[in-house]
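Question (not urgent): is this output format expected?
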Amino acid sequence: MSDISQRKSEHLDLCATDQVAFQDKTTLLEQVGLVHDALPELAVADVGLHTTLVGHELSAPVVIAAMTGGTERAHAVNRDLASVAEELGIGFGFGSMRPLLEAGIEAGYQVRDVAPGALILGNLGIVQARAASTAQIARMVEQTGCSALCVHLNPAMEVIQPGGDDDFRGGLQVLERLVQQLPVPVIAKETGCGLSRSVGRRLRDVGIEAVDVSGAGGTSWVGVETLRARARTRRLGELFWDWGIPTAASVAQLSGLGLQIVATGGVADGLDVARAMALGATAGGMARRFLMAWNEGGREGVRIAADEVVEELRIACLLTGCASPRQLAERPVVLGPQLRAWLPPDSPLALRTTGG
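Got this back:
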């Protein structure tokens, strides 16, 4: 097994455990109170979940978030995940495609035959995108049939990773180049540390229209790399294990900037998706719940879990009197004090907050 495939396999093993959770920090989604409507004047069947994300129609605003690729194990996992996304009309994201770009490893990246119409999100690190030509990246996108390309920003993870990158200059220029030259939409995403309002503005200014916050509070990718790290970086990793902007805070920071926002990072269920959408997210994504479902029940386990998430979101909409998830962003919300502390002064959320 190549070094990069070995690393991806280790990531899968670690992320299936509780060893790599944030130690003290939470997503702060628990600090989003949705106001109950005892007279919703709706039937469950009246709640429509259809959503458009990066120009693609989804039956529900749910994404099976970036998880794996580049190993033989990823082949079976991703094909099952993608086929469930196809069946239910939700999104699916590859893990990092660096093994394919740099080493030609195709394992885990060929799913279009089982998901011909699904929203499939590619995934490449900003440093690898900087080193590659647009033509190389475009070929990778075409080869895998990606609907859009996520470019992940992960400085905290990289500086802890054994042999990881330590030069992150020129990232904004890379994103601007890809937005202008790639034939598919580009999504800027973090890897467990969230995106701030300042970063959101800079992304918007170079033409990025969609982001994936991948906030703090779920899996700590600094923690993942700390468990794999050598002595020096292990010390740093233990110090920065809980680094990052909580998921709810990141969505709140980006709200009102005109970006489509995918909320990932510790999102556990459909109620969390509803909470994120009340803060301004366009969709919510999760990885660990689906990985655990696959480990326990294969494709059928994933399909059941995805059905449950969609049902949970639908019920949350009904109980807030919303005929669609989009209306969640128009309803009053109650925010706890820790989350309120993250609100920027010009946040549109301030006008909708009823207390907390």
